[in-house]
Amino acid sequence: MTGGRGETITTTGHAVTWRRPPLIRDRRWRWGLMAGTAVYLALAIASIEVDWSRVVDGLARGAAFVAAFAQPDFVSRWEDIVAGILESLTMTVVSTFIGILLSIPVGLGAARNVSAWPVYMFCRGMIAVSRTFQEVIIAILFVAMFGFGPLAGVVTLAFATIGFMAKLLAEDIESIDWRQVEAVRATGAGWWQLMNHAVQPQVTPRLLGLSLYRLDINFRESAVIGIVGAGGIGATLNTAIDRYEYGSAAAILLVIIAIVMVTEYASSHARRFLQ
Amino acid sequence: MPLSIATRNHQPVWRRRTTRAQWALWSAWLVGTALLVLCSKVIADNTTWSFVADAGRQAGDLIGRMLPPEWYYAGELWRPLWDTLNIATLGTGLGILIAFPIAFLAARNTSPHPALRPLALMVIVSSRSINSLIWALLLVLILGPGTLAGIIAIALRSIGFIGKLLYEAIEEIHLTPMEAVSATGASRLQLMSYGVLPQIMPAFAGISVYRWDINIREATVLGLVGAGGIGLELNASINTLAWDRVAVIFVLIFATVMVSEWVSAKVRHAII
Predict the structure, then answer these.
(1) What does the alpha-carbon distance between residue A144 and residue B58 come to, in Å, rounded to a whole number?
(2) How close B200 gets to chain A, by Cα (Å)?
């Protein structure tokens, strides 16, 4: 006997037992997905090539690295760490600012309800490209263009910020309360006035919240793009790991974790304050 | 809306903010602007401007070298692409397996002991703070180059993401079904299984698929540090300055990420 929402009630003798409804209701889909998953897992796991002797060799290094976390070496590379972190932080601030500034026109252009069709396609394309490629790939291209250093990093992060912010902003604009726009339009407002008085007040709170969130992400990303030469703490970290200086590497990772914790805490507080 | 009434000639005047709020706002703007100018100055000082002046020509040169892309090279890319998909999928799976119990330890309403909660939160924050590429850098050192390092790197990064969103979902569940289940005399585990789990299942599935989509993107670059997948080919092509091959890889990455984003959107739409 089947219940209304797919709960199955089977009667065994006199007792009635209840079985929980499955996550996927259609039996064919359920079994098909399970079989497909099993076949995929078998194929995928079979295609992993592991050099076990290398792993055994590496375990000692792994142990040394874990031990280094217990005794991080902040001292011997302290100046490099401070310089790298400061560079990461400055890159974060500048790139977030530029990114947000540029994402506002792109976001407006990518909102179907307020922009013309060719502008919409162009802005959506830009967002798609920015979101598809991982920051590191973009950094490689910008390093090739602007040379090594923090500027390439700033441009990379700003570009990535545009994709992130503009998409969310566009979605936000597409779901605004249209009656307010009509009310402002009825007063004879032009397009700019419409944006300023009807659209902007509706999306600003969320925009501010997202900006703080992006600040967080940009700091985390700035720690990585240094690996390909785009400035920041990543270069220092990469060097430390390459030289097997586990103590310094652990110290850098701990500093990154601490800063992310602080910014996350601060931004969650600031977001609560803003809303 | 914060507004205050000030008086001028005994006549009330509307103001949007109190004097104090106005000063706070202005000083926030001042500090923000000063910080921005300072940071821009640091960046500008550390930049070689002659390279920047040359950037337009460099970009043109780069595009010139990328065109026409060496299309037949795509035939060699299926295996690395398969590896990339495996790194993302198996890594997400492994991450889910670890994140699931951690989320229950981290959620205020299901954590079995108050001492375990900060520990679980610590694991989540550490995992979230460190990018998968850095995890990969470390793991390549320990496990040697290859897809295994990539899978574990993706898993380690995913723990924090899935764990955080899942424990927030657990903290938002309704108490009524839990009370109903516990009224039947259910044990703690039964309470989790019948009272909590059905409520978070849709969120959990959505989060997992979303992370899988992000992981596809992340997995494309892990090869740059030796952790397998299409990034290995990308690294090799860039090192040999074979930009026409790089273009092919970019097109392939673009297509893969687009498809994964579409799949993830479809699945999330079906669940929620």
Answers:
(1) 7
(2) 12
